[in-house]
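Ops channel
N.P.: pipeline sanity check, posting one input/output pair.
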């Protein structure tokens, strides 16, 4: 499975991890250098101390009146010793030691120069023709503590560096990717019928070819759709006059014919011409619905339009329509002619495909929710999803071409509304319901249900 992760997130985490890793490497390298330098300084201090103490110790030892004089140098003040020392003769006999010195730390025989024990670093020097030796010891723990503190001091900035770098990278990326995000949103938020070029101003160089390609594609699509729409509209329009003429001639012929068999044939031709004429009318409506222009410049009150259309149907199919209108006005940007096409198709469907024994509920609420509801068999969900397609019909004996819902859907999506189709109708166990919020006209279309 492919995961589409955010570029911003990926770069933010990647760059921060990279910067942290580099910093850690830098800390390790500078820690090693610092430790080496510190060791040199500590060694030099150790050597210096030994060289300083040795003459004093020699004088002290030589001036002793008895061989049993104090062998421990007195401490002037109580304190902890970092450096301890012992002064011994060549055989290792102790002559003098600092007050905290532990003779076990030192080797049995004195040695000159630097030596390491598991716990101490020791420096030895001799005087009086190698008869008196001094050895100064420094605990290694002291050095380790100094190295650790230096390391921690170098690591400490990381705690600030990580959040600051995460935030900084995130901020810079957000700033640089803003035109890309705007570009993506402008494609995402446009209605299905909006094929105008996408604004590519301010896009980073790397994304410009994509924008150019998208705009070129939109232009080609627009041209293809325009050609298709104008072909549909023109052919439907061109068919109208000859169809009307043919129908009139057939009707005249019907009245002149005495032979019942011939008359029956002519009636069939008349029916065929009539359905052809209806089809060309529906194709014209579809071309208009898909051609844009579903919105008008200023809002209109749709209540009287709905009342008029419902009355029109009522006169043709008495007592079948139950109309519920709001008390006030319902203003919508939907073009009144387009609204008339929409409502005609929905009511016509309800009357035609619904149970003839049950009424058709047509309602418009003050909030702009238009609902056309009828009784009848349930349309299964998989079929329901297909009904908006052109020429799609489901299990009906009624005449028709399968264009009504395609027209209604094109009007809804072209004007930023959503046409909801439900079966069974809401609040009942059977039937069919079509719902659309006419006050959403002019906004962006939402998902279809
Ligand atoms: N109110 C409804 N109740 C039950 N079924 C419906 C209803 N409206 C539509 N349908 C089903 O959806 C199908 C498609 O409807 P649509 O309006 O697109 O085409 P049509 O009514 O068959 O033909 P046309 O509208 O072109 O004359 C219908 O054939 C019918 O099966
Ligand atoms: Mg229909």
């Amino acid at each position: 499975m492919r995961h589409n992760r955010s570029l911003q997130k990926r770069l933010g985490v990647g760059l921060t991890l990279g910067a942290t890793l580099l910093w850690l490497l830098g800390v390790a390298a500078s820690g090693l250098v610092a430790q080496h330098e510190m060791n040199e300084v500590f060694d030099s201090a150790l050597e210096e101390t030994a060289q300083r103490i040795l003459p004093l110790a020699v004088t002290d030892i030589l001036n002793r009146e008895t061989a049993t004089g104090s062998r421990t140098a007195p401490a002037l003040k109580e304190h902890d010793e970092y450096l301890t020392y012992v002064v011994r003769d060549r055989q290792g006999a102790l002559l003098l030691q600092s007050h905290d010195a532990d003779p076990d730390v030192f080797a049995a025989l004195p040695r000159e120069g630097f030596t390491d024990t598991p716990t101490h670093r020791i420096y030895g020097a001799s005087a009086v023709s190698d008869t008196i030796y001094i050895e100064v010891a420094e605990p290694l723990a002291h050095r380790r503590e100094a190295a650790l503190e230096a390391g921690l001091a170098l690591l400490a900035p990381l705690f600030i560096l990580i959040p600051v770098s995460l935030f900084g990278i995130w901020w810079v990326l957000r700033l640089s990717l803003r035109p890309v995000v705007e570009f993506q949103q402008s494609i995402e938020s446009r209605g299905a019928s909006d094929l105008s070029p996408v604004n590519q101003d301010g896009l980073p160089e790397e994304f410009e070819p994509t924008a150019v390609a998208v705009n070129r594609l939109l232009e080609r699509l627009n041209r293809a759709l325009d050609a298709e729409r104008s072909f549909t509209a023109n052919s439907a329009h061109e068919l109208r006059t000859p169809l009307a003429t043919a129908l009139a001639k057939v009707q005249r012929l019907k009245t002149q014919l005495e032979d019942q068999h011939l008359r029956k044939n002519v009636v069939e031709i008349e029916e065929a011409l009539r359905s052809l004429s209806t089809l060309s009318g529906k194709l014209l409506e579809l071309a208009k619905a898909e051609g844009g222009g579903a919105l008008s410049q200023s809002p209109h009150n749709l209540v009287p339009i709905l009342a008029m259309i419902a009355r029109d149907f009522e006169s043709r199919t008495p007592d079948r329509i139950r109309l519920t209108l709001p008390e006030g006005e319902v203003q919508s940007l939907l073009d009144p002619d387009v609204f008339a096409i929409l409502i005609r198709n929905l009511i016509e469907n309800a009357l035609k495909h619904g149970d003839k024994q049950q009424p058709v509920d047509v309602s418009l609420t003050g909030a702009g929710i238009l609902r056309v509801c009828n009784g009848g068999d349930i349309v299964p969900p998989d079929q329901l999803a297909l009904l908006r397609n052109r020429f799609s019909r489901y299990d009906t004996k009624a005449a028709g071409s399968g264009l009504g819902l395609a027209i209604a859907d094109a009007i809804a999506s072209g004007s930023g509304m959503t046409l909801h189709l439900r079966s069974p109708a809401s609040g009942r166990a059977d039937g069919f319901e079509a719902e659309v919020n006419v006050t959403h006209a002019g906004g962006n279309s939402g998902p279809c249900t």
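N.P.: looks fine end to end. The first strand starts at residue 84 and ends at 89.
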